[in-house]
Amino acid sequence: NQEALEFVSEPIAISYNEFSVEVTSFKLNTMSGSATYTGREDEKGVMCLVDSFVMLKNGTKVQLKPRHMGTGFCDFILSSPIVLSEVDYVQLRDGMKLYVPEM
Predict the structure, then answer these.
(1) How many CA atoms does the CB half-sphere of 43 hold within 13 Å?
(2) What confidence tens digit (pLDDT) does each residue in 36-79 have?
(3) Degrees to nearest 5, angle at CA 47 with 50 and 70
(4) What average pLDDT does this structure show over 76-88?
(5) H/E/C letters for each residue in the chain?
(6) What was the pLDDT predicted at 103?
(7) pLDDT-based confidence at 101, cuts 50/70/90?
(8) Which residues are bridge partners to 41 per DSSP?
């Protein structure tokens, strides 16, 4: 399934401890996700995205596990497959919730 949801329409600032970034894209599909960000010249910005999860409408929490990362990006694998229509929101490490965009 190539369908994907984009949760970010304009950059959002997030932080964790001394790390801060601006997330410019956060995409989710049935088995994985990806995020791009600016604000760091090294790979440590990904620390702001570790421990993020997807919350489904039925209350199920699905972990986003970092798979590939580099300067300005992180690709995730989901701890279990999901149905995109069942997604309520993505919660980032700092507690910010990214809700499913209006279609």
Answers:
(1) 6
(2) 999 988 888 899 999 999 999 999 999 999 998 888 999 999 99
(3) 100
(4) 95
(5) CCCCEECCCCCEEEEECCEEEEEEEEEECCCEEEEEEECCCCHHHHHHCCCCEEEECCCCEEEEEEEEEECCEEEEEECCCCCHHHEEEEECCCCCEEECCCC
(6) 60
(7) confident
(8) none
Residue 102 has a CB neighbour count (10 Å cut-off) of: 4
Q: Are 29 and 4 in contact (CB under 8 A)?
A: yes
Enter the tokens of residue 34. 């990806």
By C-alpha distance, which of 83, 102, 90, 22 is closest to 51? 90
Name the one residue in this structure whose structure tokens are 């993020």. 52
9-46 pLDDT tens trace: 999 999 999 999 999 999 999 999 999 999 988 888 89
> What is the structure's pLDDT at 43?
84
Residues 45, 29: Cα–Cα separation, whole Å: 22
